[in-house]
Design brief:
Length: 304
């Protein structure tokens, strides 16, 4: 591969990290000792065995099929985009960015890999790894949110400063960070693609984690659209507002027995059933529903 071609192939990441290509070494299959040139834009061939993974890598999952496809491409055409490493000692390096490319290269049986060699302390490594992944990789929404939160916590950034670093406005950063306030089960569903970020943003309109989890289960079970979820959330908000305005005297603390009955009914109807018991033993049972379909489901269970 010619020097000019290798420089062109490395231009994308070079531009991201404000690098200017300077020096390149010709690629060899298994050189006994690879000579490297440190510098912000120097592209070198280094042994994969001399590279350790980045402890600051924000990505936690890699699609096996996508990795295999990239590996097959590397076998045929080589690695187009160099990785970025920092030198730890003589011939030891630590990955800054490009773990997906490194993994795919290992799958392809590559012995040496093109790389930029940078000088960076731990804080710089964290920032470069996070920004490179956020801007260049398809992180899921939870991984992006965790990356944002980590930059805020470990780099002492404000949301406005973070937005400037990752080229996103503050409202976008805020929306991602709010996802981390959702119950863990919902965060997992976002991470796994079971629900979208639009669904999650609608659920954030509910104050109660119980309500959030209930509607989340309905999204999974019934495949609800974002618009439908937004409608359900509005209904819950309106019901909660009406309940606060009412002066209901049937609000005595529930005994253990009554609480257990309420929990059992909630489980049976897959709804947030409420038992309200007055001081004289009278009371009522509320079985809320969030849509016509939900009402029909409950009526069928009651043999109505």
């Amino acid at each position: 591969m010619s020097v000019e071609k290798k420089r062109a192939l490395g231009k994308g990441l070079s531009a991201l990290l404000d690098d200017t290509p300077q020096v390149t070494n010709n690629r060899t299959a298994t050189p006994p000792q690879v000579q490297t040139t440190d510098g912000p834009g120097a592209i070198n061939e280094i042994s994969i065995d001399e590279i350790e993974v980045n402890p600051f890598q924000p990505r936690t999952e890699f699609d096996p099929q996508a990795l295999q496809e990239l590996s097959d491409s590397i076998k045929l055409q080589g690695l187009i985009q160099p990785i970025t490493v920092r030198r730890i000692s003589g011939n030891k390096y630590q990955l800054i960015s490009g773990e997906r490319r490194l993994r795919a290269s290992k799958l392809a049986g590559v012995r040496n890999i093109p790389a930029y060699i940078r000088t960076a302390n731990d804080q710089q490594m964290l920032e470069m790894a996070l920004i490179e992944n956020i801007q260049r990789e398809n992180l899921n929404a939870i991984e992006t949110a965790l990356s944002f939160q980590r930059m805020i916590d470990e780099l002492n950034l404000k949301q406005e400063e973070l937005g400037e670093r990752v080229s996103k406005n503050r409202s976008t950063v805020t929306n991602y960070l709010r996802l981390l306030k959702l119950p863990p089960a919902i965060q997992v569903a976002i991470r796994d693609g079971a629900i979208t970020m639009g669904h999650a943003r609608a659920l954030l309109g509910l104050e109660s984690p119980t309500d959030q989890l209930y509607i989340h289960q309905m999204i999974i079970r019934d495949g609800l659209s974002v618009r439908k979820v937004e409608e359900m959330v509005r209904n819950v908000q309106q019901n909660a507002s009406s309940a606060k305005k009412g002066n209901n005297k049937l609000n005595e603390p529930l005994s253990y027995q009554v609480q257990k009955i309420q929990d059992d009914l909630s489980s049976r109807f897959s709804s947030k059933v409420k038992l309200k018991v007055g001081s004289k033993g009278s009371g009522l049972i509320e079985i809320p529903f969030l849509s016509d379909d939900d009402l029909n489901r409950i009526l069928e269970m009651l043999d109505w």
